[in-house]
Amino acid sequence: MTSNTLLQVENMGITFGGLKAVQGVNMVLQQGELVGLIGPNGAGKTTSFNMLTGVYKPTEGNITFDGNLLNGKQPYQVTRSGISRTFQNIRLFKDLSVLDNVKVANHSLAKHTILSSIFRLPTHFSGEAKMEQESLAFLKIFGLDKYKDELAKNLPYGMQRRLEIARALAAKPKLLLLDEPAAGMNPQETQDLMELIAFIRKEFGLTILLIEHDMNLVMGICERIYVLDHGQLIAEGTPLEIRNNPKVIEAYLGEEVVD
Amino acid sequence: MKKSKIFWGYLVLALVIYGVGQALISMNVIDLYYQNMLITMCINLMLAVSLHLVIGITGQFSIGHAGFLAVGAYVSAIVTMKLGMPFIVAILAGAIVAMLAGLLVGIPTLRLKGDYLAIATLGFAEIIRIVILNIDYVGGAAGMQVSHMTTWTYAFFTALITVIVISNFTKSRHGRACISIREDEIASDAMGINTTYYKVAAFAIGAFFAGVAGAIFAHNTYIIQPASFGFLKSFDILIFVVLGGLGSLSGSVISAILLTFVSAYLANFPETRMIIYSLVLILVMLYRPTGLMGTKEITDLFKSKKKGGMTHDE
């Protein structure tokens, strides 16, 4: 493992009952990379994300992040160690305001205790002020600051996607996992999203791993791509290599008919 | 600091209500019957607000709140009657033991969700009741005699403290963490919130104030019996919270006061009392399916009036 490696996944796999959903996945992410994870429906992409974030416990293999073993950690511990994510089906806190959504992710920024909040001690006010300031700064970057008091559920779809990314960033990740960020977006919105991803990557010095079905987006911005099929990695390489890889074509389009 | 101005405004309003109540009582304008109703209102308010924190804010469907009420009532009664300590010590002791009971129940059961948690908490409350029923030291089924020590002052200020503490908790990073669990536990976890910690914390704080309510209740009734803490009592408290609107503190307060009043008034018609009470509940739920206040607070109503309703700017 070189000093630049941020995430190393070795032989990761999970079994649900008798079903081997994902097996033998090896993955290495270097600091600052933008890597794509693609594959047909049901290939195990989201399951892999869930293992990386601690939602599922891998039944085999090791996940090393930033020099620490992540196996068996709770999701909130994984997040605090620096991996943050968005969800395939948007999971915002619908009845909280846009600002409060980001504040929840900013939770660990302030340190005031429950008692300090109950008795309204000075640490409560300074902590809350710091969270407010920081959260507003995030909203501004994403152009959401004018909606800060709106309930999250009232935002238009594209804005909700943006808010989810803003919220994930507020948790101060080193590695950002994006699960189909462009799902349901029109071409213009997808274009904006690509620019946004490139921007936040530079601005926050992030490493990004993204799952996406939109091949224009994946081929356009990813430096490297992993391809999953039936729970196994079938290919790895640059977008050009992946585009011409016969195994990948087979997984997506089926076998060539030989007569 | 506009927010603190609003807080002081409410505090002054609360003190005025207290002052009026106290003046009426000391001038004998309202008799013992109404005095007792006022105190019952405070007790129900505490129960409603403390359960609101667990169900309305954190979204954990607990229906064993009467168990904590019983713990608070019996522990405080033991402290005053058997140990001869002052009432204020008894209130604190009842609350702390109830909170410990809350931790004891919360840590194993809060990993359950929805219906399963409801059944587990219900079972816990029944266990408490049956344990008390079988302890002769506290009188068993016959009950335990308790001197009348609760006054309007005790009832009012404990209720006021309950509301302030729970409102302060809710409007902080801790409260937001609890609400995020209610909204989406998986996302909340993924944002770095220790969900187990906050569920147990909300449960323990709720139990603490149910314990306070128990102490006030025990010293208001001359005798406490295990039968007063059955699951019907838990449902009464649940009704306050649901009727007020899940997630609305002011809703819980309003519905606790309103339903105490309705139920006391209906005592004049013993035959039809429960029928009318049920009808009131059904009507409210038909016309306000999200409860009296929905998830809104009284303060929101003033705000939206000033702004002239919600404005969408796209």
Shape of chain B: globular
Strand order of the largest sheet of chain B: 1-2
Q: What is the succession of H and E elements of chain B?
A: HHHHHEHHHHEHHHH
Question: The biggest beta sheet of chain A, please?
Answer: 6 strands, mixed
CATH class of the largest domain in chain B: Mainly Alpha
Proper CATH architecture of the largest domain in chain B:
Orthogonal Bundle
Class from secondary-structure proportions of chain B: mainly alpha
CATH structural fold name of the largest domain in chain A = Rossmann fold
Mean of residue pLDDT of chain A? 90
Tell me the overall shape of chain A: globular
When the domains of chain A are counted, the total is: 2
Strand content of chain B: under 5%
Strand order of the largest sheet of chain A: 6-7-8-3-9-10
Sequence stretches where pLDDT stays below 50 over 5 or more residues of chain A: none
> Total number of helical segments of chain B?
13
Count of all domains of chain B: 2
Name the CATH architecture of the largest domain in chain A.
3-Layer(aba) Sandwich
Helix count of chain A equals 10
Total E-strand runs of chain B = 2
| CATH homologous group name of the largest domain in chain A | P-loop containing nucleotide triphosphate hydrolases
Features:
heterodimer; A: 259 residues; alpha/beta; Rossmann fold; 2 domains; 6-stranded mixed β-sheet; B: 314 residues; mainly alpha; ABC transporter involved in vitamin B12 uptake, BtuC; two-stranded antiparallel sheet; 1% strand
What does this structure look like?
Chain A: It holds the Pfam family ABC_tran. The complex is a heterodimer of chains A (259) and B (314). Chain A is α/β, with parallel strands linked by helices and 259 residues long. Chain A is built from 10 helices and 10 strands. Chain A has 2 domains: 5-82 and 173-253, Rossmann fold (3-Layer(aba) Sandwich); 97-163, no CATH class. In chain A, 39% of the residues lie in helices and 24% in strands. The longest helix of chain A has 20 residues, at 122-141. By secondary structure, chain B is mainly α. Chain B has 2 domains: 1-30; 31-307, ABC transporter involved in vitamin B12 uptake, BtuC, CATH 1.10.3470. Chain B has 13 helices and 2 strands; from the N terminus they run H-H-H-H-H-E-H-H-H-H-E-H-H-H-H. Chain B has helices at residues 2-26, 32-57, 65-82, 87-109, 114-133, 152-170, 173-183, 185-190, 195-218, 231-244, 249-265, 273-287, 298-307, and strands spanning 144-145, 223-224. In chain B, helix 6 (152-170) runs antiparallel to helix 9 and helix 7 packs across helix 9. The longest helix of chain B is centred in the N-terminal third of the chain and has 26 residues, at 32-57. The two termini of chain B are 30 Å apart. Chains A and B meet through helix 2, helix 3, helix 4 and helix 5 of A and helix 6, helix 7 and helix 8 of B.
